[in-house]
Amino acid sequence: MADPLIVKICGIKTYDMLDVAIAAGADMVGFMHFQRSPRHVSIDDLGGLISAARGRIESCVVLVNPDNSCVAEVAALGPDWIQLHGPETPHRVEAIRAEAGVEIMKALPIGGAEDVARVAEFSEVADRVLLDAKPPKGADRPGGLGESFDWSLLDALDPSLPFMLSGGLTPDNVAEAINRVKPLGVDVSSGVERAPGVKDKRLIEAFIRNARAAV
Ligand SMILES: O=C(O)c1ccccc1N[C@@H]1O[C@H](COP(=O)(O)O)[C@@H](O)[C@H]1O
């Protein structure tokens, strides 16, 4: 039997939406810790959200090119995962993984064949890779822009490399994405919001329902 699809709802900021994601059957939630994000959660608030998730759903804190003190501070809160969503090199991912002692998901921007060619080196040093759309030049953040990428680029990927898919997923396109790309899991933020940083219960439920129905 195929592995069950992992569904991650990212950019959760409130206890209500954490409860919604859990009740709707998500496997993971992501909390952003990046000042420029409309989903930014402070260190103080992260602690409470991670504790509220513990034992109910896997939690993941999203960081962008963090320094060692930020990694240590976040790891001490006890999330299941840290997602690295910046320009971290394979060497840096390896160092953070050793330092943090939690599982590491490395997000990689995909905009062309050269980006697909780099996935394998990160698969060796991270516990999981997440493939996201490459942000346009001048974007003020490296993700969470609701932009998708050309999924056919992934045809060139070694089929033995598992990955999660993100970037512009919505309740309307998630089934098509799953059938086309056959990812280990799917990750969404903007596509389940009614405004930047404001999650919508019905969209979260529809996203998870449509993702589960696709497999
Ligand atoms: O959400 C953000 O603002 C963000 C900021 C910096 C790095 C990553 C960010 N979000 C992550 O990007 C992917 C795709 O998001 P979307 O569904 O296209 O909006 C996802 O992992 C977000 O959590």
Number of helices: 8
| Distinct small-molecule ligands in the complex | the ligand O=C(O)c1ccccc1N[C@@H]1O[C@H](COP(=O)(O)O)[C@@H](O)[C@H]1O
Compressed to H and E, one letter per element, the order equals EHEHEHEHEHHEEHEEEH
Percentage of residues assigned to helices: 25-40%
Main sheet attributes: strand count, strand direction, barrel closure: 8 strands, parallel, barrel
Mean pLDDT: 96
How many beta-strand segments? 10
In angstroms, what separates the terminal alpha carbons? 11 Å
Spatial strand sequence of the major β-sheet: 1-2-3-4-5-6-7-8
CATH topology descriptor: TIM Barrel
Looking at the overall shape, the CATH architecture is Alpha-Beta Barrel
Category from helices, strands and their pairing: alpha/beta
Q: For the record, what is the CATH homologous superfamily label?
A: Aldolase class I
Overall outline: globular
Q: In total, how many domains does the architecture comprise?
A: 1
Task: Give start-end ranges of low-pLDDT stretches.
Answer: none
What does this structure look like?
Residues 7-209 form the N-(5'phosphoribosyl) anthranilate isomerase (PRAI) domain. It catalyses: N-(5-phospho-beta-D-ribosyl)anthranilate = 1-(2-carboxyphenylamino)-1-deoxy-D-ribulose 5-phosphate. There is one protein chain. The mean pLDDT is 96. The chain has helices at 15-24, 43-53, 68-75, 90-100, 113-117, 119-123, 174-181, 201-214, and strands at residues 6-10, 28-32, 58-63, 81-84, 103-110, 128-133, 164-165, 185-188, 193-195, 198-199. It has a single domain (6-214), classed as TIM Barrel (Alpha-Beta Barrel), CATH 3.20.20.70. The longest helix has 14 residues, at 201-214. It has 215 residues and is α/β, with parallel strands linked by helices. Helix 1 packs parallel to helix 8 (201-214) and helix 7 runs parallel beside helix 8. The protein is built from eight helices and ten strands. Residues 10-11, 30, 32, 34, 37, 39, 62, 64, 85, 132, 141-146, 166-169, 187-191 line the site of the ligand O=C(O)c1ccccc1N[C@@H]1O[C@H](COP(=O)(O)O)[C@@H](O)[C@H]1O. The site of the ligand O=C(O)c1ccccc1N[C@@H]1O[C@H](COP(=O)(O)O)[C@@H](O)[C@H]1O has 26 residues, from strand 2 and strand 8.
